[in-house]
């Protein structure tokens, strides 16, 4: 929501998509609607890319000796995968620090653990078992907040004042305040 408020064009695009599909009579966005909202899905993916709630994956331990980019890694080495850094690596992402949902509209990159440049839920045997619940919750809550309310900054605050930096930790979080106006 913070990223969307900072980029009014993206906010307008996603709200228009949702309101056009759902109309004004139904009252809520449901799971079937979500499947027909590609821009909303792109917004959610871009949010998971730039702000992965769990920036370091569960630690792994190597079973065999291996060579990675010329480095020899001994068996039983603890490996920490920094999915935050991977998702902002300029080798894989154009303008990696910018919030651009459109980057997901014309490709199949997903966060299900097959595309290693985007791992907000990890990958492999220790990948997140709650991914379906996590994604459904985020998509449903966000889409309904966007459908029902217009969002604006508190009086006196400008878009430039929005700081999207996050606090370091096992999970990331930011403090951001918006004001909601109910839709008529
Ligand atoms: C947006 C929501 C969520 C995000 C971003 C998230 C992210 C993650 C990540 C990155 C991992 C580590 C995966 C790895 O190291 O490969 C993980 C593990 C895990 N998650 Fe989630 N998760 C979310 C929601 C949930 C939910 C809703 C549940 C349960 C209902 C859940 C249960 C777990 C469990 C049990 C593990 C440990 C798996 C293991 O170590 O084998 N997560 N999650």
Describe this structure in words.
By secondary structure, this protein is α+β, with helices and mostly antiparallel strands. The chain has one domain (1-174): Cytochrome p450 (Orthogonal Bundle). The protein contains six helices and six strands. The strands form three sheets. Strands 1-4 form a two-stranded antiparallel ribbon. Strands 2-3 form a two-stranded antiparallel sheet. The model has no long low-confidence stretch (mean pLDDT 92).
In short:
It comes from Nicotiana attenuata (Coyote tobacco). The chain is of the alpha+beta class and 184 residues long.
Distance between the termini: 21 Å
Question: What general form does the structure show?
Answer: elongated
User: What is the helical fraction, as a range of percent?
Assistant: 25-40%
**Separate helix tally:** 6
Features:
6 helices, 6 strands, binds protoporphyrin IX containing FE, single chain, 184 residues, Cytochrome p450, two-stranded antiparallel ribbon, alpha+beta
Which helices and strands occur, and which strands form pairs?
Layout: H1 2-6, H2 8-22, H3 31-34, H4 38-50, E1 60-61, E2 66-68, E3 71-73, E4 78-79, H5 83-86, H6 131-148, E5 149-152, E6 179-182
The chain binds protoporphyrin IX containing FE.
Protoporphyrin IX containing FE (HEM) is lined by residues 53-54, 57-58, 120-123, 126-130, 133-134, 138.
